[in-house]
Amino acid sequence: MEAINLKKKECKIVVAVDESQESMYALSWCVGNFFSEKTTNTLVLLYVKPPPPVYSSFDAAGYMFSGDVITALEKYGSDLVNSVMARAEAIYGKFSSNMSVERIVGSGDAKDVICNTVEKIKADTLVMGCHGYGFFKRALLGSVSDHCAKNVKCPVVIVKHPEEK
Amino acid sequence: MEAINLKKKECKIVVAVDESQESMYALSWCVGNFFSEKTTNTLVLLYVKPPPPVYSSFDAAGYMFSGDVITALEKYGSDLVNSVMARAEAIYGKFSSNMSVERIVGSGDAKDVICNTVEKIKADTLVMGCHGYGFFKRALLGSVSDHCAKNVKCPVVIVKHPEEK
């Protein structure tokens, strides 16, 4: 037989979320297209924090970081996670109520963490924004979605924010 | 409001099909995930023929092409279209019966034709294989899905054949 029926009953769909409007749009697209009252898919929100900074006791200018500054930086990081997850919840909460949602917070290089997580949890689909904000950002950030599209084995959906059209 | 409900009632979903097993797998994935008895989406099968060959009267070795050869080449091209569309039909035919299907046969450079067609018919989603067959083919062919993912404005799904995992 040429092709098999690929629709599993329960799919695990990973959405890579970050602070960007684009990733929230990708989440919204994902929920609208992959979830309904009848589906029993699981939505996995994956947020990748930047690699833990190496807190040298001295900053670039040679001044010492106080413990307070380090704590503030760490708090900023966890505030960011909470803020992104809250924004995400505001989006998927509007849709189907019987949605199973998991949250994963990784840390490190986004493209590696995303690829590894998708592999590890045996995700069925990865949905992410494209970060197509123009040449400069695309060159820098677009490489995340490029890299994932090439390296992840499951289907990858790249969603662009309509304002970028 | 952060994000809008992106699920339109009727979506136009383009699947770029070609002779590859991978594109048939992408079609199967697409039908399994985007179509059900309840959806009223339209499936658009897009096949791109290579650019029409410039039939020089002389081939590379300087011999003249007879009219018969040219006719045979043209027939081969249309046989290929029919064969791909028949394989596609065997796949989507197994799914929901009330599926609206359109066929588009383009000609030219695949990446340009795909991007232009998606734009022209205002498609909601583009689904395509990745052609990730390994370094050499990826370098040559992967560029089609790369190019489309970057240039098409609607969400793009890149599906890999599981054997390539």
Concise account of the structure shown:
Chain A has helices at 21-34, 67-92, 110-120, 135-151, and strands at 12-17, 42-49, 100-107, 125-129, 156-159.
Which pair has the most extensive contact? A-B, 42 and 42 residues
CATH topology of chain A: Rossmann fold
Radius of gyration based on Cα positions of chain A: 18 Å
Order of strands across the biggest sheet of chain A? 3-2-1-4-5
The biggest beta sheet of chain A reads:
5 strands, parallel
- Count of runs of 4 or more consecutive helical residues of chain A: 4
Let me know the CATH homologous superfamily of chain A: HUPs
Strand percentage of chain A lies at 15-25%
Q: How many DSSP-defined strands of chain A?
A: 5
Backbone structural class of chain A? alpha/beta
CATH class of chain A: Alpha Beta
What integer is the average pLDDT of chain A? Answer: 81
Domain UspA (chains A, B): 12-160
InterPro entries (chains A, B): Rossmann-like_a/b/a_fold (IPR014729), Universal_stress_UspA (IPR006015), UspA (IPR006016)
Protein name (chains A, B): Universal stress protein A
